[in-house]
Amino acid sequence: MADRDTAALDDPVGESLRGHHAHLARRIGRAAGYPPEIATFSTVSADPGPAEWDDLARLLGRGGFADLFSSPATPPADWEPVFSLDGFQMIWPEGAHPGHTEAQPAHAEAESGARIAELDAGDVPEMLDLTARTRPGPFWPRTPELGAYLGVRENGALVAMAGERLRPPGWTEISAVCAAPEARGRGHASRLVRALVTRITARGERPFLHVAEANVAAIALYERLGFKVRRRVTFRGFRTP
Question: Is 189 helix (H, G, I), strand (E, B) or coil?
């Protein structure tokens, strides 16, 4: 995959809703978004006019939450700002092998005594509880419909997870990487991310992810695993009038 193909990552929400997640899209005109029980992300064109913002407002309803993710588009002045968070978009280098790193050797799984397993609908209550406790980012009851989610259990309890979220052409976003406080420092996050990288690259796609600039521990982990910063982003949310 050539570098020019990273252009799909400039609008990962819009590209996902026009492509792999088109069956999940809600649309009015050129404005689109996911059902809120899946994700609160919304998208507009690169240079939206007043009519397009009106379409998004109608799609979300009065007082609706417009999570514009990394879009630089600025809504009208009567849209109430809810949050703004600086971060990074990181990508998996083309052709890189998702092997074990020096920081996380191959015998880590045996040492932890925990096995990675695919999660399903029956695991959603535990997934919601884990993300509520660890706050890796937005996660809703139907978020697992976006892609595969993997987890680690200790003594039967879900203590770590990670999964697939946005799917622009040729790419899959790794998201919801988290571990319960009592299970940190055991390499679960590293193994989960590597397992997802292996899955994604096996189907001919490249992984990418987003991380808050202030989350220096996560950034360091992703860099150790092989991810590189592609660009700075600002995540923003607004309330419709």
Answer: helix
As a whole number of angstroms, the distance between CA 135 and CA 130 comes to 8
Rounded Cα distance between 30 and 14, Å, is 10
Name the burial class of residue 54, with classes exposed (0-12), middle (13-18) and buried (19+) by CB atoms within 10 angstroms of its CB: middle
Strand, coil or helix: 207: strand
Burial of residue 30, with CB atoms counted within 10 A of its CB: 0-12 exposed, 13-18 middle, 19 or more buried? middle
Q: How far apart are CA 50 and CA 134, in angstroms?
A: 38
Q: How far apart are CA 222 and CA 130, in angstroms?
A: 21
Q: What is the pLDDT of residues 10-49, one digit of tens each?
A: 999 999 999 999 999 999 999 999 999 999 999 999 999 9
The predicted-structure confidence for 128-158, as pLDDT tens digits, reads as follows: 999 999 999 999 999 999 999 999 999 999 9
106 contacts 100 by C-beta, under 8 angstroms: yes
Handedness of CA 35, 36, 37, 41 (dihedral sign): positive
Structure tokens at 101: 């790193």
* 184, 112 contact by CB (below 8 A): no
Integer Cα distance of 154 and 172 in angstroms: 28
